[in-house]
Amino acid sequence: MRIEVVRKVLARNQQAAADNRRRFDELGVCCVNLLGGPGCGKTTLLEAVLPRLSPLRVAVVEGDLETTRDAERIAALGVPAVQVLTEGGCHLTAAAVAEALARLELAAVDLVIIENVGNPICPANYDLGEHARVAVLSVAEGDDKPAKYPLLFRGAGLVVLTKCDLLPHVSFDVTRVEAAVRRIAPDARLARVSALEGQGLDGVEAFLRCQLCAAPGAGRALPS
Amino acid sequence: MRIEVVRKVLARNQQAAADNRRRFDELGVCCVNLLGGPGCGKTTLLEAVLPRLSPLRVAVVEGDLETTRDAERIAALGVPAVQVLTEGGCHLTAAAVAEALARLELAAVDLVIIENVGNPICPANYDLGEHARVAVLSVAEGDDKPAKYPLLFRGAGLVVLTKCDLLPHVSFDVTRVEAAVRRIAPDARLARVSALEGQGLDGVEAFLRCQLCAAPGAGRALPS
């Protein structure tokens, strides 16, 4: 019976995700789902890349179990941010995202970035209606992670290796990780980033801008 | 209906956990559940502390979604290790642990350490029959994590801050984190560890030895 219920939960999520995606497409909004483990640097990556996206109009949906800290960090940049608290839930659902979207002036937005709950496992199973996924792995987490958490990387259009400034201090074989990622997600772009030092952000910025052009509803005039 | 099923799943797990705990107690075995996010350094911590526990007889149950890498690392130390692959599951269950225990010569073991799946959320909800929990947080993950993942720390008898050799290179306020942990888990012991540099392991070793003395079934003669 449990399997049946899980199937129903996923089917209901899939329906809500399709509704979100249709809404995005009707409004010409692109949506990117940002996934990764706890403390892998998702919010810091956003803090580094969001100022580079101007004059695009970006909004952020933040998922966390507790605290509104991440949404506050994004709002401090002048970017509209909505915090979703999952009340113990280990992932965002499409329905929770739909509620968050209702609190945004979506017609005045070009790109919605959803920062998922810090968890390398469960969020990957839930389509939120996004057009693309970005998977984040900190070099401090170790280079065995693509093999251990393949689902995190499988659907990603971009895989970002964060905290590369720590590479001299940790055991992390970048070449090995990138080869492992390529086996799991052959078409994913790769970026080596140090948000602290402002390195490697060009690739992330370019990926986000590209998604925007490729989004199905992006026929509408974009700010250039 | 979903809530009802979740409740049944948790109740069934609780029953299996009680069975595990009874088995441990009958045999005078102590069991510790090691929890933390992906790449926080759980296996590396074990590699550093296990050789210090001799002549205690330790066995390790490793939980992962994929790969038997962690069990191989432990077995390389000459410590019996059983790998549980969760096939996509984001946490270990007491039933999966029971199956793993059947593959160990439990009567010849003093201490079972269960290294849970790398995930700061779901594993904390599942009692495995352990006598104590150890929560692991890497300083590379950031000092906002106790506030974000309180459940990880709430039930912990020991909280280990790992990768302290990275402190000069990351933004991590140890005092702030330790104060936050004390608010969540006032009785937890704290340890600041660098497994790489062999620092801070005394506290971890002492905690594990103490649990052994305190375990209900530990009346049996222990190797001294």
Question: What is the strand and helix layout of this fold?
Answer:
The structure is a homodimer of 224-residue chains.
Chain A (H helix, E strand, L loop, with lengths): L1 H26 L2 E7 L5 H8 L8 E7 L4 H7 L5 E5 L8 H8 L9 E5 L16 E7 L6 H4 L1 H5 L3 E5 L11 H11 L4 E4 L8 H14 L10
What does this protein look like?
2 copies of one chain form a homodimer. Chain A is α/β, with parallel strands linked by helices. The first copy, chain A, has helices at 2-27, 42-49, 69-75, 94-101, 145-148, 150-154, 174-184, 201-214, and strands at 30-36, 58-64, 81-85, 111-115, 132-138, 158-162, 189-192. The longest helix of chain A is centred in the N-terminal third of the chain and has 26 residues, at 2-27. The relative contact order of chain A is 0.19. The model of chain A is unreliable at 218-224 (pLDDT under 50). The A-B interface holds A 1-2, 5, 8-9, 37-40, 64-67, 69, 88, 90, 117-122, 138, 140-142, 144-145, 147-151, 163, 165-166, 169-170 and B 1-2, 5, 8-9, 37-40, 64-67, 69, 88, 90, 117-122, 138, 140-142, 144-145, 147-151, 163, 165-166, 169-170.
